[in-house]
Amino acid sequence: MVNAGSKIWVFKEMGVSGQEGQRRPLIAGNWKMNGRRADGLALAEALGAWAKERQASRGSDMLVCPPATLLGAVSEVLAGSWVAVGGQDCHGQEKGAHTGDISAAMLADAGASAVLVGHSERRQDHGESDSEIRAKAVAALGAGLQVIVCIGETGAERDSGQTLAVLSRQLSGSVPVGEGGLSAGTLVVAYEPVWAIGTGRTPSREQIIEAHSHIRAALGEMIGDMADGVRLLYGGSVKPENAAEILALANVDGALVGGASLKAEGFCAIYDAAT
Ligand code: PGA
């Protein structure tokens, strides 16, 4: 069994604003429903070997979120590495009669130190509401996990000028304000425009800056000064070719990467673009 506890501490320590309010970048990979055991282990081994060489010179955090079937095996490969492992979703309750679901405590037990909640594919494929996502986030914090709350507008919402209102609504509905365990180190928000996910299309620099500064301000109204230390990730068609430009934008503290996280070389190139 992997002991996630020490990694959670490291993760938190690194995530909280360090000197002069700097937020340490986080590059997170979301493998989605991809990979059999051999693929997942090969990818984890490649990342682990790469991370070992970077042990001393790393400037950002790295997280991988494999499918649940691979979580334990990937955690074991990366045990002792500074690369953290997370889940892609969790249930809002601790345990019980919920066939097919996985609790936050089970993720932690399998070696996870973080979990994504509210990914747009969960919202779309499983009809997850903001209040359900909030309950998942509360459960994640209760299990000692760092929680990455995903938000983002659809193409239709952007076209009709609702982007910022949608982001505000999703934030206020799903961020677990007032819950135990919530801190700048345990909360991450990922802005992922639905129309940019897996499409090869990315928002303009101005659109990303506008969304991230809106999220920072909205969080400030919800959680006060703590908002300054919360990392805001951009996600949606991040690739080695566009990562440096996106990661340099104001209030972009890292990336949530789907397709390009499935190859170690590309994912590590994105990591390097952050540092
Ligand atoms: P993508 O996915 O990088 O393949 O666009 C991002 C995500 O859904 O997290």
Short description, anyone?
The chain has 275 residues and is of the alpha/beta class.
- Bound compounds: 2-phosphoglycolic acid
How many helical stretches? 11
Order of helices and strands: HEHEHEHEHHEHHEHEHEH
How many beta strands in the DSSP annotation?
8
End-to-end C-alpha gap: 32 Å
- Order of neighbouring strands in the sheet with most strands: 1-2-3-4-5-6-7-8
Range of helix content: 40-55%
Overall mean pLDDT score? Answer: 92
Query: How big is the Rg?
Result: 17 Å
Beta-strand portion reads: 5-15%
The biggest beta sheet, please? 8 strands, parallel, barrel
Write the layout of secondary structure elements.
Layout lengths: L4 H11 L10 E5 L6 H18 L6 E5 L2 H10 L6 E4 L16 H6 L4 E4 L2 H6 L4 H13 L3 E6 L3 H5 L3 H12 L12 E5 L13 H19 L7 E5 L4 H8 L6 E4 L6 H11 L1
Parallel strand pairs: 1-2, 1-8, 2-3, 3-4, 4-5, 5-6, 6-7, 7-8
Helix pairs in contact: 2-3, 6-8, 8-9, 10-11
Bound molecules: 2-phosphoglycolic acid.
